[in-house]
Amino acid sequence: MYNEMSNAHRAEVLTQALPYIRRYNGKVVVVKYGGNAMINEHLKEQVMEDVVLLWLIGVKVVLVHGGGPEISEIMTRLGKKAEFVDGLRVTDKETVDIVQMVLAGKVNKTLVNLLETKGGKAMGISGMDGRLIEAKMKDERLGYVGEITKIHINPVVDLLEKGYIPVISTVGCDKEGNAYNINGDTAAAYIAGALGAERLIMMTDIAGILRDRNDPSSLIPEVTIKDAEKLRAEGIISGGMIPKVDCCIEAINEGVKNVIIMDGTVPHSILMELLTDEGSGTMVTRGR
Fold first, then answer.
1. For this structure, is 32 an active site residue?
2. Which of 119, 134, 188, 270 has the smallest number of CB atoms closer than 10 Å to its CB?
3. Which of the residues 60, 118, 138, 244 is marked catalytic?
4. Is residue 172 part of a domain?
């Protein structure tokens, strides 16, 4: 009897997801992935399962990933101390080599391998491949930290057309061939904009924009660009949330329909956001 009920419940859940499956089938969804959800191996597997499930129901998922903790770990092993200015990693020539090695190598290929073992068809590239992310030096104090000057989106489009899940590490380059460490949120915003994505999902380690940062129940489910300006003036959007919201606004201005900031440490949060009535996190929209 229990199995019959649980199977019926599963069937009901799938039926309720049908309108959302129909809505996102054939559409591009960009997922910015990093932070705690990437460090926890069990969570990482769940996120990859969610991505493969979306791909199997016809969503064109693009995974843009960071890897800050892994970079810091390798730097420590090599006897280099991580320095940050305004939340950005100071990146000298040796550090940018480490960034390239860790992001475009270990982290990228680990995610590709996981997606493949979960039944997906994935291809890993960096922002240097096909000059996907063209950049220039952002600030001499930061060294090889890049400011995006142009996105050459064709490599990603080609992979999507051939049925792959593109997995993109956020390393960019300039016309002279210098490599740059690119902020993952910024890269995801520009890539999503260039693709005209239906949605950009920014996975963080908090529920979204909170009226009271100490109270998860004070989540603001939706804000417009105008609301965001007001919330910033009131100090509700502050600290590390400021650049994240700026990236959301940048993505919308570049052509993304809407952006979600959500807690990537909650199991199956991507599926809750895309395939249920409830949703997850804070949605940032253009407004009327």
1. yes
2. 119
3. 244
4. yes
Which of 34, 66, 129, 185 is catalytic? The answer is 185
* Residue 7 within a domain: no
Residue 12 lies in a domain: no
Selection from 189, 196, 195, 157 nearest residue 170 by Cα: 189
What's the predicted TM-score (pTM) here? Answer: 0.92
- Whichever domain contains 123, its CATH number is 3.40.1160.10
State yes or no: is 86 an active-site residue: no
Domain limits at 222? 25-285
**DSSP-based three-state secondary structure for 224:** strand
Specify which residues 259 forms β-bridges with. Answer: 200, 284
What does the pLDDT average to over 156-168? 98
Output 46-49 pairs: Cβ under 8 A, ≥24 positions apart. 46/267, 46/268, 47/203, 47/264, 47/270, 48/111, 48/114, 48/115, 48/118, 48/120, 49/118
CA distances from 219 to 74, 107, 167, 249, 258 (A): 36, 31, 30, 19, 17
Domain count for the chain: 1
Angle 241-253/225-233 helices, nearest 10 degrees? Answer: 160
Reply yes or no on whether 35 is catalytic.
yes
Is 235 in a helix, a strand, or coil? coil
Looking at the domain assignment, is residue 2 inside a domain? Answer: no
Q: Which tens digit of pLDDT belongs to each residue from 224-251?
A: 999 999 999 998 998 878 888 999 999 9
| Annotation says 106 is catalytic | no
> Is 244 among the residues known to form the active site?
yes
Count of beta carbons in the 10 Å neighbourhood of residue 118: 18
Within 10 Å of residue 30's Cβ, how many Cβ atoms? 28
Q: Which of 68, 120, 124, 143 is the catalytic position?
A: 68
